[in-house]
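Notebook, p. 212. Picked up where the previous page left off. The plan for this session was modest: take the two constructs that came back from the sequencing core last week, fold each one, and keep the raw output in the notebook itself so nobody has to go hunting through shared drives later. Recording the first one now, exactly as returned: residue sequence, then the structure token string.
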Amino acid sequence: MPALAGWLLGGALGCLGGASTTASDVSDADTDTDVDADTDVDTDTDTDWTPADLAGCTAEVRTDEGDDESVEITRTLLYDARGLVMEQLSDDPDEPARLETDHDDLGRIVEWRLDHDGDQIFDEVWTRTLGDAQISDGLDGGIGDVTSFCRDTDADGICDFEERMSHDADTGLRSLYELDVDGDGAFDGTCTYDYDDRDRRVAFECTDLLIRSAQYTYGTGPLDYVVAVDLGDDGTVDNRSERHYDAQERLVFTAEDLDADGVWDSDAATTFRPDGTIELVEGNVRQPATGRFREEYTYDADGYTAEALFGLDVTGDGVPDTRTRRTWSWSCP
């Protein structure tokens, strides 16, 4: 089950459009399940739902990993005046003890500040530069106009890991991706992209450290796609992934075939409530164990997340063999 901080860090990277196996994998927003459904910024003006008002709220999220009435992890989320998370505190050793985020006028995260050990000193700073418009093409974490990303691993003001993205002046679509993995100012890998006459990405090809290529095929929905990735660019497909979106451009199905054997190693389908919040995520996994999972969300009368119950059935009897329960407590103006 993804960490709660995943969506906060999600989208910082993910620059190869759901097909990356570089450092981008740590936070590819295309593959993470957003476990705090109330925090997403809606970029589709045709939607007719309004999420709960989170402006100025504080949420405490308690995780009971065995569903045995003991709390192993506690996280606190603080929301700003726009209802966006500006700070998260966590006692999970696998997450930063404190994570602060800044957003631009469109509600997009432009800076992450990470305090790993809770000493009130930021150990890492991540920044990204974005254009004026949100481009939601189902790729690049749904944010197609990222122009640069910098990871400053010791908070000294110098990029230790850098990504740079160039876009076509006429279409706004990404044309070039460049990666510097060690902050020496020299790019260690580049990618170029091809598009069809509907401005849909149909291929990319990467060189040097990133050497690989990919081909996209599209389904019935305007954003639905399958991408086949050839690592090493040797003519052999090494992995596949598939994404389906609904009319509101929300990710409703994702699947991964990690070894291109024609069998999904994981898949997940998401069901939304009428107000746009997540109701249910269910699917299958094959690693580290084969089983079927189900994560169901409940909300209080005002629309705030109240509980999420995750279960994994590895025996096939329909009864979860492992369960994790998360509960939310809210304090709002």
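Okay, moving on. Second construct, recorded in the same format:
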Amino acid sequence: MYHIVLSQAVDLVSIDRAAQADRCPRHVVSDISQRLGATVHQPGSDVITPIDCIGAKIIGQPAHWALARRLSCQLTNDDTVFCLGEDVGFALAILCKVKGKLPKLAVSVMDPERTRVYGVLKMFRLDEQIERFLTHTHIGTEAIRAYMYLPHDRVCQVPEPIDTKFFCPAAVQPATRPTIVSVSCEPHDYQTLANATQSLDVEVKVGAVSLTGAATPPIHMPRVTSTNMTAASYDELALLQLYRQASVVVVSLPDHHASAELTPLMAALACRRPVIVTRTPGLAEELINLEAVMGVNPGDANGLQQAITHLLDYPHLAATQAQAGYEHILNEHTSESYIEQVIHQLQNLDGLLQPEYQNMLFSPDASITG
């Protein structure tokens, strides 16, 4: 039997209903669960115990451990489980290991470069429990392979998905002056954006958005804003119109070494808009190298201003870059591509970590053929 375990509670029924009415993007979990006949599990409904709070000191939140604790009692070695996130996935792997259970487990690791992720993998030897690791970036894939000494087929890269049926180009009424848009699902460096645009004759719109039905994050505004900058929270429909009207989309990130959450960037590319992004490891750097987006260094207001001015002054170059980004999204990052690749991975989990297969592979009496 197939199971999908989420890291955060999501109202999939409401999202499906809204997506069918073209009011929001589709959720990939709905399609995967329907295709596989999978049961979807979400945190939040289980009673939290003191042991869950202790587990949360290792990784994740108490609600993740409460969910994992219940599932570890219910799962068998015949079950195939896909966990969207290391927070709940590692908790489930640890508890199954304690109980001596080996369901066929695949975990999508969202932040593989984090020291804590590395530490938990090593400390609990989760490579003996998790059959397949999925990541969204090449750097993340290589990181897990390297520090866990795993073969290529145990760590697979799948695309960061975006619903290109919802986020797509459309003709709009031209604005009276250029519009710079910067929205996020996590903290952005709006101070650098304000410094870069305060002397430009542009309108700057910043804000927060939730693309999955989760609570809208707080808007982290700079201490000093320019008179041409406004902030707001956006739902998916408003975000779609905002992107379509944008002259340039800016993803201005703080200086850090972890891969950033770049779903808004993917949505902007799917709307065929020129994008400027702060250089961060992972997907952002990959897109910069492909010339699908323009990159600037963290905190570099002068460099960001020059990049914005360049795209506004040379619209044909901006259009060429936007087209390159749009084609890359259609070729590599559609929801359909992600769904097919994940289903393929789950259907091809072969239970090589289970005892009877381990005995067959590693028994001294086993014959060697080839």
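Notes on construct two before I forget. The first helix runs from residue 12 to 20.
Flagging for discussion at group meeting.
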